[in-house]
Amino acid sequence: MSSRWEDFEIDCTEYLNKKFGEYARFKLEGGSDSTVPDIKVTTKFGNIFYIDAKNSPAQCGQFVLLPDISSSTFIYSHQNTTRINNYAKQIMGHMNTQFDEFKEAGTAGKDIIMC
Description:
Blueprint: H1 4-20, E1 24-28, E2 39-43, E3 48-51, E4 65-68, E5 73-76, H2 86-97, H3 99-102
Antiparallel strand pairs: 1-2, 2-3, 4-5
């Protein structure tokens, strides 16, 4: 039995093939691995690119932070697939000011409300 997000990705891929199949071929690839894009697009001219399909609510643009208990700050994981950027730094700064609230968020995550 597939989950709701899997059904959504399948539906998106089928829709794209029906709607734009004369221009490109769309192939579902990502699955549950969030480091791999969801849909591979191959145009009739041979161009290849990828798109993601996200059902609400969904996580996207995610990265991993590791809590450093001794300094009460978060460290940007070296296993992230992208380099740290200004947006990640802003999020880390916000989380550092509320370290105790976020230090045990785990893989379930925790909502971040930044004003």
